[in-house]
Specification:
Length: about 240
């Protein structure tokens, strides 16, 4: 029963992330030159994480992101069974969130200013998959490294952990939106890409693999680096 509650929390959290994060992008656009929509979208993603951290964080840890779950798995913070359950729940939540956005925008006659349900793309890196992967590795590395540090047993951030993580997600969006749209989250990329394909735009689906490989690689690297830093710190403490 505890696992079901965790999976339900991850489903809900990821669904809300897509609705408010991608929904904001769809509504205001992400034109870096004009700036307003760009910043609003970055804030929307970050503030959702803050809200969900204090909503479902005590139930599932508020990963709502397969890359975060991978980092926690490698760090020894969860079992492989829970990892699989989390990822499935996150992807289903992202798809559900995209479905709700499709219903809102289609029935309400609202224009999608992203053209693809807030999905990620490679236009900002001249359609280069290699550059896109590099961007996502760097962004996810910084994001997941922060999460592992903030949530470690030695961290002393009190009740401010969710705020730190939320603002870090905002930060990586400020850099990444103009490059790849900022994924750092395979589930967040999966839902909108599938929704866009269903609605006749298959372009996001064709490069979806970049936003799976990049974030997962960045998360794995962050977990390995953090384990090294943590072990070095323990060794120094013993001397």
């Amino acid at each position: 029963m505890d696992s079901i509650r965790k999976y339900a929390a991850e489903f809900i959290g990821t669904m809300v992330l897509v609705i408010f994060g991608c929904g904001t992008a769809m509504l205001v656009g992400c034109d870096a030159e004009n700036g307003g929509g760009y910043i609003l979208t970055a804030l929307a993603f970050g503030l959702v994480i803050v809200g969900m951290a204090y909503c479902v964080g005590n139930i599932s840890g508020c990963h709502i992101n397969p890359a975060v779950s991978l980092g926690v798995l490698i760090s020894g913070g969860m079992s492989i069974t829970d990892f699989i359950g989390y990822v499935i729940s996150q992807c289903l939540g992202a798809f559900a969130g995209s479905g709700i956005l499709a219903a809102i925008f289609s029935t309400g006659g609202v224009a999608d200013k992203t053209g693809g349900f807030g999905s990620n793309g490679l236009a900002g890196v001249n359609d280069s998959a290699a550059a896109g992967i590099l961007v996502e590795v760097v962004l996810t590395f910084a994001f997941v490294l922060t999460i592992l540090g903030v949530t470690s047993k030695k961290a002393n951030h009190g009740s401010f952990g969710g705020i730190v993580i939320g603002f870090t997600l905002t930060l990586v969006h400020i850099l990444g939106i103009g490059l790849t749209g900022t994924s750092v989250n395979p589930a967040r990329s999966f839902g909108p890409a599938v929704a866009a394909a269903i609605n006749g735009n298959s372009t996001p689906l064709s490069c979806l693999w970049v936003f799976i490989v990049g974030p997962l690689a960045g998360a794995a690297l962050a977990a390995v680096v953090y384990k090294f830093l943590e072990s070095s710190d323990k060794s120094s403490a013993k001397k």
